[in-house]
């Protein structure tokens, strides 16, 4: 069952956005030089032409700090009551990465924690932050999605290496009026653990470690069942997005901008088609340049689109994502007049 938070108190309102990708861009031709693939094959199956990859020594926390600094600058503030970091690739298994990110931002002492829902992590973080604001636990929350996803890929796996990239995006949420532009609508979230093997890293967790078995190196890398993932992603994302539209009282044709998790161009297109969101500028996309950045995907897309003028004040915006777990989520908002900074 899909569950969502219904704001009874103040709404969470976007007041600034920031995003970054590592400077190194990796083209399809570069991958084709050592993988059994080609530029044409990758573009046709995924819609991706290039993706960004961190340099050795750059961590998820490093990207998160950069994106967060830009978001805080855009919002014109230096303080927040909480930091929520969505990621699949924390700097360490223990402790969480968010407290260190918060301290590096000068926010020592605030609540800070990681959220792990793979590609839906940012929406899970957004819902959590909105709940904190509605409950009066916080007046301002920094929500970050950051990944160094290339660090968990099997370098020889042509089914995953071309798809994923690294990056980070962040938003500053403040307490505000549910009727004002930028107010996050009800955040719908769901999961189905019966499909947990679709998207996984087999080794490294307690299940493998307590088994007494030594895991082969291949089991420490990210694995994905592509065909089944595609089917579930399209079905679940379409359903939760439709529910979010119904709660907002919008028809799909009234959506000005659809910001879907940039998983795969075919998935994004299939969901938009099923919903009835018009083609063209209505469907925001940056997957051709950055690939699938997992938890960073949605905030990176929103920030880049706003900075480029593709998201304008007053735009009715639908956001949706699907990730491992499996997990899914969606929400709506009327886009506000706020700065968005990229690096």
TrEMBL record:
<feature type="active site">
    <location>
        <position position="292"/>
    </location>
</feature>
<comment type="subunit">
    <text>Homodimer.</text>
</comment>
<comment type="function">
    <text>Catalyzes the condensation reaction of fatty acid synthesis by the addition to an acyl acceptor of two carbons from malonyl-ACP. Catalyzes the first condensation reaction which initiates fatty acid synthesis and may therefore play a role in governing the total rate of fatty acid production. Possesses both acetoacetyl-ACP synthase and acetyl transacylase activities. Its substrate specificity determines the biosynthesis of branched-chain and/or straight-chain of fatty acids.</text>
</comment>
<feature type="active site">
    <location>
        <position position="261"/>
    </location>
</feature>
<dbReference type="InterPro" id="IPR013751">
    <property type="entry name" value="ACP_syn_III_N"/>
</dbReference>
<feature type="domain" description="Beta-ketoacyl-[acyl-carrier-protein] synthase III C-terminal">
    <location>
        <begin position="245"/>
        <end position="335"/>
    </location>
</feature>
<dbReference type="Pfam" id="PF08545">
    <property type="entry name" value="ACP_syn_III"/>
</dbReference>
<keyword id="KW-0012">Acyltransferase</keyword>
<dbReference type="InterPro" id="IPR016039">
    <property type="entry name" value="Thiolase-like"/>
</dbReference>
<dbReference type="InterPro" id="IPR004655">
    <property type="entry name" value="FabH"/>
</dbReference>
<keyword id="KW-0444">Lipid biosynthesis</keyword>
<comment type="pathway">
    <text>Lipid metabolism; fatty acid biosynthesis.</text>
</comment>
<dbReference type="GO" id="GO:0033818">
    <property type="term" value="F:beta-ketoacyl-acyl-carrier-protein synthase III activity"/>
</dbReference>
<keyword id="KW-0963">Cytoplasm</keyword>
<keyword id="KW-0275">Fatty acid biosynthesis</keyword>
<feature type="region of interest" description="ACP-binding">
    <location>
        <begin position="262"/>
        <end position="266"/>
    </location>
</feature>
<keyword id="KW-0276">Fatty acid metabolism</keyword>
<feature type="domain" description="Beta-ketoacyl-[acyl-carrier-protein] synthase III N-terminal">
    <location>
        <begin position="113"/>
        <end position="193"/>
    </location>
</feature>
<keyword id="KW-0511">Multifunctional enzyme</keyword>
<keyword id="KW-0443">Lipid metabolism</keyword>
<comment type="similarity">
    <text>Belongs to the thiolase-like superfamily. FabH family.</text>
</comment>
<keyword id="KW-0808">Transferase</keyword>
<dbReference type="InterPro" id="IPR013747">
    <property type="entry name" value="ACP_syn_III_C"/>
</dbReference>
<feature type="active site">
    <location>
        <position position="119"/>
    </location>
</feature>
<dbReference type="Pfam" id="PF08541">
    <property type="entry name" value="ACP_syn_III_C"/>
</dbReference>
<protein>
    <recommendedName>
        <fullName>Beta-ketoacyl-[acyl-carrier-protein] synthase III</fullName>
        <ecNumber>2.3.1.180</ecNumber>
    </recommendedName>
</protein>
């Amino acid at each position: 069952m899909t569950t969502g938070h219904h704001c009874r108190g103040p709404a969470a309102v976007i007041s600034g956005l920031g995003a970054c990708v590592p400077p190194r861009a990796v083209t399809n031709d570069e991958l084709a030089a050592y993988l059994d693939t080609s530029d044409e094959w990758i573009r046709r199956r995924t819609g991706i032409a290039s993706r960004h990859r961190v340099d050795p020594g750059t961590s998820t926390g490093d990207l998160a700090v950069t994106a967060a600094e830009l978001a805080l600058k855009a919002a014109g503030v230096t303080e927040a009551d909480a930091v929520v970091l969505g990621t699949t690739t924390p700097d360490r298994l223990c402790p969480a990465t968010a407290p260190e990110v918060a301290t590096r931002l000068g926010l020592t002492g605030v609540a800070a924690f990681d959220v792990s829902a793979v590609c839906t992590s940012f929406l899970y973080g957004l819902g959590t932050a909105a709940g904190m604001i509605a409950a009066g636990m916080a007046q301002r929350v920094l929500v970050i999605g950051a990944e160094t996803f290339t660090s968990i890929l099997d370098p020889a796996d042509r089914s995953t290496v071309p798809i994923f990239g690294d990056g980070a995006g962040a938003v500053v949420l403040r307490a505000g009026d549910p009727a004002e532009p930028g107010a996050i609508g009800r955040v719908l979230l769901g999961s189905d653990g019966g499909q947990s093997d679709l998207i996984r890293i087999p080794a490294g967790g307690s299940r493998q470690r307590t088994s007494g078995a030594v895991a082969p190196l291949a089991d420490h890398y990210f694995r994905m069942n592509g065909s089944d993932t595609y089917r579930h992603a399209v079905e679940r994302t379409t359903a939760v997005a439709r529910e979010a539209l119904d709660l907002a009282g919008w028809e799909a044709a009234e959506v000005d901008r659809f910001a879907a998790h940039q998983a795969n161009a075919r998935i994004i297109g299939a969901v938009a088609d099923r919903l009835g969101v018009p083609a063209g500028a209505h469907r925001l996309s940056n997957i051709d340049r950055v690939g699938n950045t997992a938890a960073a995907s949605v905030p990176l897309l929103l920030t880049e689109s706003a900075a480029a003028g593709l998201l304008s004040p007053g735009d009715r915006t639908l956001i949706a994502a699907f990730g491992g777990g499996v997990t899914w989520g969606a929400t709506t908002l009327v886009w506000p007049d706020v700065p968005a900074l990229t690096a």
